Amino acid sequence: MVNTRAFDEIWGTGGPDAPRTEFAALSRWIHDTPSADLERRLQSAEATFRQLGITFAVYGEKEASERIIPFDLVPRIFLPDEWRSLSEGLIQRVEAINAFLNDIYGKREILKAGIIPPELIFRNPQFRTEVAGIRPPHQVWAHICGIDLIRTGPDEFFVLEDNARTPSGVSYMLENREAMLRLCPELFREFRVAAVDGYPDMLHGTMRSVAPAGREKDPLCVVLTPGHYNSAYYEHSYLADAMGIELVEPADLLVDDDIVYMRTIGGYVRVDVIYRRVDDDFLDPLVFRPDSMLGVPGIMAAYRAGNVTLMNAPGNGIADDKAIYSYMPEIVRFYTGKDAKLPNVETYRCREPDAYQYVLDHMHELVVKLVDGSGGYGMLVGPASTKAEVAEFRKAVEAQPERYIAQPTLALSTVPTFTDSGIAPRHVDFRPFVLTGKGKPQVVSGGLTRVALKEGSLVVNSSQGGGTKDSFVLLDDPGTPTRSQRQSGGGRSQQQQQGG
């Protein structure tokens, strides 16, 4: 059964009248701000998001396929010590992910050691034999990672899944902060909050740092988008604009003699680094799907020749696989020699007979997921499902057990949220972003908090009725300026700040 006594990150276990000491000021703000005022501010935020075109796709619906993601004004807050601990765990995990990808496309030492069953790699549709033997600059495969975390107590954080292909949501992180600065400036006077607006500079710096050999001095970087019909197109255009680089579609690029060029009104210009938001299958019709109209013919030949860097690297989707996720504690230990600082959620692999039988016997108690599912699709939350839904999902698991994993139904932490019936706790998860280029990975001092707006729901995905919140990371360095201080001219420059 779902534990209904979830830990609330602001109110703790004492409720609104006895909040956690560090958040007494936020609790007072929640109590003292009239509901009508909160509603007015929310409407203003929604109008801005709609004007900007910040939408997401709802797949499988005939109408209203593009929607505004609901936004909540009550921020989620991380204390400095919490954030330091999380950052250490995130860096360790991302370093292990990159080592794992470099290994399975190279010497495959982890398979020789018997840590992972070989069939989980070689039979995985996300394992791309086409990139075996390639060595990207600095052996970085997952340049941009979004590691989904959940919390169950004051010091209890778990990794829910890894996103190493094309993790989205960073534009919501940035726009949510802009909305909060405009609509709730009093909270930034009350709390010293790390800035997130330096993310585009961090991303551009990461791109430049992984330029191909011989092109490091002044590499030309671009963002490759499938086009304006893509559900994340706003994010693609936002990031390109914020970095001051070109947003290109596949038709804007061509490959000649294993070199990628961009068409411009002044002629062809060589491209060195591509932040690609086109999936592997559609990236190059000469290598992957021949019917792809979104790819750039020959781009994989240029990549293999070392003449262009692709971020994230093709083939790294296998690190997203939920069956591989279940081995991440062993993967971290194998490549770092240390136990994982951020633990996994306990996971049952249905491909294993004992686990399979346990899942069938306890399906009504578990969360069961497709190993390659995403967006809240291909998933069963047992305690929130009807007997008919459980029975139907059971048939799918019985037909292909190797495609499923299951996890206990944890009591995700809650954060006070403005609902139709007033302020009430709602379950949240968290996606921080980690950038890896030349040198040590960098953790952005913030992230995307997703909130399940339906009472009692544990599903936070926007496609399943979830919304977002701003994520405050508190500073404990008196010399580090907040965003509002920088805008008034105080403190250090943007490049010198913690977290941008």
Automatic annotation (TrEMBL):
InterPro entries with a match to the protein in the record: ATP-dep_Glu-Cys_Ligase-2, CP_ATPgrasp_2, UCP005522
Pfam families, alphabetized: CP_ATPgrasp_2 (PF14403)
Domain of life from the UniProt record: Bacteria
Signal peptide as annotated in the record: none
Residue ranges of every copy of the Circularly permuted ATP-grasp type domain listed in the record: 75-452
Region (Disordered): 460-500
Comp. bias regions, Gly residues: 488-500
Name by which UniProt lists this protein: Circularly permuted type 2 ATP-grasp protein
Source organism of the structure: Stakelama flava
